[in-house]
Amino acid sequence: MAAAAQDTASGFRPHLATEVDLGLYTVGTTSASDAARRGTSTYLYGELAAGLHLTPNFSLQGVLAFEPIGEGDALGGTPDGGTTFFRRQSAFLEALFLEWKPDADTTLQAGRFVAPFGRGHHDFPGILTRIRAHEVNAITDSLGVAATHTLYSDLTWGEHDISAAVFTLDRTFLSSTLLTRRSCCDERYERFNRNTRAQGGPGNTGQFDNAVLALDGDGFAFAPGLSYHVGLLTRGAGDDGTAREWGYTIGLRYEQRWSATQRTLFFAEGVQFRNAAARPRTEITLLGLDPDTGEEIETMLDTSIRERRTFTTLGVQHRIGEWRGTLAWQRDQRKRSVEALPTENYVEASIGTDLPYNFSIDAGYQYARYAREETGGLGTSHALLLRLGWRGF
Q: Is the CB of residue 349 less than 8 Å from the CB of residue 125?
């Protein structure tokens, strides 16, 4: 009662705050080594965030994500020479947590969230750069507790926040999709139901033995446009894994303002996973000769995939008023002990502008050297990209 009276006296009223960031994407692959990649895909990707503020420092936060859930569909997928619209489109709760701010420097969270590891998957400029980072290193489906505290604040040396999270992979009903279910015999669905223990994967331990520690800083007097992110991740092995996964990330951004209407943003981020996917078990086929007959025979060997995965992004964006141009390069290198994969490279160039009523439009081109699924080795593709975005509320 006393808290309610204090809120009333201060003019605070419980309220709902919302923010929308949605994009209608079209990827037209004009040329590709694999025929299945050629064609045009249109889909929705983005999020609706909402916060129910019950007191000035206590709220319930939620994020409803929209994206196609088929393998690779969020990056163009496999239209197989045709045109697809909203194929395997889905929505799901990316976050639902309680948030409490006991003081101006501290934020505490409990519930389902995206662990604070990496920054690019949240706000990389461009068209597909952010989505590709999200596919590789966003630590989603995290159920647990998290905290952020302003560690140091100075007018000259900037402000530095430390974040930590302890979590497990969410297996509750909240991990299920809200719209789409897998069609019969379609194995390209990556997500169609709630997480289970049987699916394995890093972090899927059923215990709170996974953690993230991160440090963010900005506001330097000697470099006003400079900011950084450094993160450390550890996740235990699920039923299919054999070792603990470790992840490291560092990201830098610098924005140079040339005038009131022109500025340039330089951005870079590197992420590395050791024992990626928690060193999952696999079977490999060994060829040999029968000692009695001399004929060639196959032998199955149980082993694990020891992988070091490194994902790198370098880019620049220049803005003139409401117009922007972005150039970005991304590299996905996966060094494996068995079942080798080639290194993928992507180059994206785009131009865009803001439109009335909070709309925006970006158009671009992507050149890709990707790992071929069927034949192995590297393939080449060329694609035209378009994004119609809207931010509101």
A: no
Which pLDDT score, from 0 to 100, does residue 349 have? 98
pLDDT tens for each residue of 259-279: 999 999 999 999 999 999 988
What is the band of 393 on the pLDDT scale with cuts at 50, 70, 90? confident
- What is the reported pTM? 0.90
